[in-house]
Amino acid sequence: MGLVEDLVQLDDKLSQYIANLIPFESNIRKIIQGFTFTGTAFFWVAYFIGWYIFQLTRVEELLSMVFVFLFMLIPVYFLKHSIKRPRPDYKDTRMGVVAMDKWSFPSGHASRSTYVMILMPIYIPSFTVFWILWGLALIATRLLLGVHFVSDILGGIVVTAATLSLLFLVDFLPIIPWI
Q1: What pLDDT does 179 receive?
Q2: Which domain holds residue 47?
Q3: Is 24 within a domain?
C-alpha cells in the first residue's frame, strides 16, 4: 500500500473511531445533533439579521462580516462540487444533520467555525473564549456524528485560513469596531 492509501485508511479509521465514541441512541448525541445546527448557513444568516435588527454593531461592520461569510462559501462550494467526496458510511443523519449537502470535503461547518474563531474575537473581543470554544465544539460535533472525515475538517480549516489570509493580504479585512 502506498502512502496516500495509508493516509486515507488512517483517516477513515480515526474518523470512525471518533464517530463511535458516543452511543447512537444516547441523549448526548441528540444534543450534539441540535448544536450542530448552529454551524449552518441558515443559522448565521438569522444571526446577522438579528444583529442588524438589534443594532449590535455599525452597518459597515455587519456588511464586512456578511461579505466575508458569503465569500467563504465560494471556495467550500466549489471544492465540494469539484471533488465530490461522499460522506462516511457511518454518518448519523437523523434530525436532518446533512440534509442540505451530500458532499464531505471540505467541511463547511469547520470552515465557518474557523471564520468565527478568527474574526468574531475582533468584532466582540469580550467573547473571545466563547467564540473559540463554540468553534472547537462545532468541529467536534461533525466528527462525533460521523458526517465528516478528519481530513474534511482539516480541509475546511485550511480553506478558511487561506481565504482569510488572502483577504488580509489585499487589506480588505476587517472593519474593526473600535476604530
Answers
A1: 47
A2: 3-169
A3: yes
Burial 58-94 (b: 16+ CB within 10 A, else e): eeebbebbbebbebbeebbeebbeeeebebbeebbee
Q: What is the pTM assigned to this prediction?
A: 0.83
Q: Is residue 77 part of a domain?
A: yes
**Before 106, cis peptide (omega within 30)?**
yes
- Residue stretches of the chain with pLDDT short of 70: 1, 56-58, 92-100, 172-179
Structural domains counted in the chain: 1
Which of 107, 148, 149, 156 is flagged as catalytic?
148
In the set 91, 109, 112, 142, the catalytic residue is 109
pLDDT in tens, 107-119: 988 998 998 898 8
Count the Cβ atoms, other than its own, within 10 Å of residue 29. 19
- 109 catalytic? Reply is yes
Contact 109, 91 (CB under 8 A): no
Q: Is 81 a catalytic residue?
A: no
> Has residue 119 been placed in a domain?
yes
Does residue 174 form part of some domain?
no
